[in-house]
Write a structure and sequence with these properties.
alpha+beta
Length: 147
């Protein structure tokens, strides 16, 4: 089973189980954002977590568990996304990317934020004018080295 077939199998099982990402993350003791990224095929799960995801979704399939554990190739379609939410995230990076780069480098020096030593959280912030989406990204600073 490849990562694409794994993803479709997991999404169908999650829908049948009526399980939220929070539920699935809680079932395996990991962040719901990270668990979702594993289920989308963009991260690999250690053996115990792969087994836990499969079990929580009622999928005792060795091929599925192996696909969850497999190292991913992290690629995506380079076309501008059409989904409005994903497009808005692209827009945020397009508009604020150079600003964030400049501010980060002013505070830390020449380097980047790791997407490997990294965590992300999504919260709902209630607001009488309309609820807000709060995305927190936390990545280790990696300075560029001279040699």
């Amino acid at each position: 089973m490849d990562k694409i077939e794994m993803h479709h199998t997991l999404m169908a099982a999650r829908a049948r189980q009526k399980m939220s990402w929070d539920d699935l993350g809680e079932a395996v003791g990991r962040s719901p954002v990270w668990v979702a990224s594993v289920c989308y095929g963009m991260n690999s799960a250690p053996p115990d977590i792969a087994q836990g995801i499969a079990s929580a979704l009622g999928l005792e399939d060795d091929a599925l568990i192996e696909a969850l554990k497999a190292y991913p190739t992290k690629t995506w379609d380079g076309a501008i996304p059409q989904d409005p939410l994903i497009y808005r995230l692209y827009e945020v990076v397009g508009v604020y990317g150079p600003t964030l780069k400049d501010v980060i480098q002013e505070k830390f020096g020449d380097g980047i934020m790791s997407a490997i030593d990294f965590s992300m959280d999504v919260e709902r912030e209630e607001d009488p004018r309309g609820d807000r989406v709060k995305i927190t990204m936390n990545g280790k600073f990696l300075p560029y080295k001279s040699w």
